[in-house]
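S1.2 Input.
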Amino acid sequence: MAASVAEAEAILSACLEAVLSSRSHANRVFEALELLQSEQKEIVLCAIRICSRLFGSLLEQGELFVGKLPSEEESLQESYSAEEKYKIWMRHRYNSCNNCLAQLMGHQSFQVKESALCTLMKFVELEAGRPLVKNEWSFNFPRELLKLVVEGLIPVEEDSSLLISRFQEYLDHDDVRFFVMKLVAENIGNVMQKAKKAPLPVYQKNAFALVSSISMPSNDSEINNFLVRHANQEEWKVSKLKEHRAAFERMWLGFLKHKLPGFLYRKVLVILHESILPHMNEPVLLIDFLTVAYNVGGAISLLALNGLFVLMLHHNLEYPDFYKKLYSLLNPYIFYMKYRTRFFRLLDLFLSSSHLPAYLVAAFAKRLARLALTAPPDGLLIVIPFICNLLRRHPSCKVLIHRPDSPAEMLEDPYVMDEEDPSESRALESSLWEIKTLESHYHPDVAKAAAVINTSLCEMEDDLSEVLELTAFEMFDRDIKKEAADVSLEFQQVQGLFGKKDNVFAQYFTLE
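S1.3 Output.
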């Protein structure tokens, strides 16, 4: 194997020297292109390096045809000079090399993938400085070559997250990032249209890895890092933040309009309010995606409501069913879900306004109190101070703990637990007798927390940050490490098998 690799390296080096020294040896370029398809990784890597040097030099020397590329058959016509025919022919070889490199981005060896990617991006930089295609406008960028790179980064059947992480350094260039966003949007549209709206988990995972790695500038002054600079840079639309935001918005809307695998909904929603919404021209366009995400259920529904809440708070979105949907998420599973901490943090955020109507806050407090009857101790240490904080924010809801009618005089609780609409739940007519019941809880910490309801609640809210992270294992570990105080006890020492002095068994059995 070593000999064949050494032989291949010698052939490639000779090929490079021959082609660059004289046009008469141009046909030797086929030797390099052939070795790009070798089955041996070392030979492929060597061939990629040689092609990088070879076509990089040809691009710098202007040895490739510039303009609309005719076919090789058309180039044989007498209307082209010998030099033009050479440049057309070599331009076709250059295109063949790029196609091979794009295929190698799917190679089983990451080293080959990385080398192919870096070589293609080198060609992108060289072409951007010396365009091979002249457009009517003054600025040119090798979109077709970059399109090959984007297609290699988001394959349909293979995970390419590692290669995408390698590509991130190129996304620091504003012009590369701009055209990548446009090409990703185009690619997603074409691929998902062929899939007829059916989820493609691997492809969509790759697409998310790429689009989520794009960091947007906040103002025009930050757009100053270009792969290639032009004389009239300020007139180029790539220099405008508005154009970047339009491309960013189109890319994300194109990605999110298709049905996603379940695991991707959570990943998107976690970064939505910080990394996506601030950089969109019209964030309210995401309402359809958020509505679909809410219907997925579980923690994803809560995260979707968080996105809707941001739109309502900062972008004047009207969504009258917001608190009705939030109310419907309160069920016994909230105390056992993986994202319980995030759930209660967001719930606290959504109910933080002092302008919410009393009936709404009372409905949430009553429903949480009812759920507390079957909650685990670690969940109760969250929900009891949570309810107390709601009462502090909304003094009009204190009627729930200061109702003149005692629980004994109430024949039945008027609260309707199964009612989906909080305005129809009759919570304000009820009381928080559930908290009173928890004063008899078996765990002393829960009983102590519930007893606060009997005192006059201070204006300062309880800090939930510590109890939100508390788990049942931590509570158990804390309890067993407690040192019990000495307790004075009066007892009669046991005598006999059953503890009585005159028991007949004491005559025959002794305790030793």
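S1.4 Remarks. DSSP finds 21 helices and no strands in the chain.
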